[in-house]
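Much of our argument rests on the idea that a fold can be written as discrete symbols. Part of our work consisted of pairing the sequence of a single chain with a tokenised description of its backbone. We regard such an encoding as a compact summary of how the chain folds. The amino acid sequence and the backbone structure tokens for this protein are reproduced below.
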Amino acid sequence: MNEPTRFRAIRLGAVLLVLVCTVGCDQATKHFARTELSQLAPQALPGGFVELTLAENPGAFLSLGASLPATARGALLKLAVNSGAGRRCGCGESQ
């Protein structure tokens, strides 16, 4: 394996590790919030500077699409992600 290919593989591995850790932490905190905070009143941490309260966001970023039915919201999100991914990788471009 030559040097640029090796560097690219190491960089891809590092990006994937960060991505997996980020998604794992996100899912763990969501699980904690849904299981622990949903049955309790808002929880204040010692010192009173932070208060934990469960808040659900049914839409995407900034509640975009929150008023749409779940199936329509999911379809639009998939379409947006797929169209963005196609542009990023150059898929569909004629050569």
